[in-house]
Amino acid sequence: MELILIRHGLPIRVDNSETGEEADPSLSPLGLRQAEALADWLIHGPAAEKIDAVYSSPKKRALETVQPLAKGLEQQVIIEPRIIEYDAGETSYIPIEEIKGEPEWYEMIQAGIPDPRAFQAQVIEGIESIISNHSGGRVAVGCHGGVIAVYLAHLMGVTQPLFFEAHYTSMNRVMAASTGERSVVSMNELAHLQVASVPLSSYKKN
């Protein structure tokens, strides 16, 4: 089967530090455009693809990214709680582009994962469950940069779990055989944004 791992579109910034509520940002206007471009490419693009199921993390930013695709396919989005991002429970969400200029920004991201091995194991379990449910099919999965990175790291034997930065609404493909073999086919596919003239830059300062 073919697995299409899709990072969510650009979300808004959320700071709930005063209320203590968990941050669960929606997509920004640019993120919504990215999601629509993705759906149009997969359904009506030059290489339109038959997609048998659409899954999502429970987070709004992931769900809103694949909702246009599911709607166009007349399918319901299936929620898989194990592919939630490592920042679950945090009271703020800051797009990574806003902290990249900070000293030691990568270490800051790494420090946000309290138990990298447990997070990776949870992600692997969730994705492998999706694979087992759709033998011979093609499935789109709306999830997160950290989720994609740790799963691909697992497949490629990379010891640094966040070795890879998936772009917003990028497609990252994995072929999964029923006999257990897994192969990474592509990473960071962004043709849908280029064709639709959606800015490739993930974040723009006002």
Q: What keyword list fits this structure?
A:
single chain, about 210 residues, alpha/beta, Rossmann fold, 6-stranded mixed beta sheet, two-stranded antiparallel sheet, 6 helices, about 35% helix, about 20% strand, disordered C terminus
What does this 3D model show about the protein?
- With 206 residues, the chain is an alpha/beta fold.
- The chain has a single domain, classed as Phosphoglycerate mutase-like (Rossmann fold).
- The protein contains six helices and eight strands.
- It has helices at 29-44, 60-73, 105-111, 116-133, 145-156, 191-195, and strands at residues 2-7, 14-15, 53-56, 77-79, 92-93, 138-143, 171-176, 182-189.
- Strands 4-3-6-1-7-8 form a six-stranded mixed sheet. Strands 2-5 form a two-stranded antiparallel ribbon.
- β7 (171-176) and β8 form a beta hairpin.
- The termini are far apart.
- 34% of the residues are buried.
- Mean pLDDT is 88; it is low at 202-206.
Summarize it.
The protein has helices at 29-44, 60-73, 105-111, 116-133, 145-156, 191-195; strands at 2-7, 14-15, 53-56, 77-79, 92-93, 138-143, 171-176, 182-189. The chain is α/β, with parallel strands linked by helices and 206 residues long.
Reading off the top of the CATH hierarchy, the class is best stated as Alpha Beta
How many H/I helical runs?
6
Number of strands: 8
Net shape: globular
Tell me the name of the CATH homologous superfamily: Phosphoglycerate mutase-like
Structural class: alpha/beta
Average pLDDT over all residues: 88
> Which ranges are low-confidence, i.e. pLDDT below 50, for 5 or more consecutive residues?
202-206
Spatial sequence of strands, sheet with the most strands = 4-3-6-1-7-8
The radius of gyration computed from the alpha-carbon positions, rounded to a whole number of angstroms, is 16 Å
The largest sheet is: 6 strands, mixed
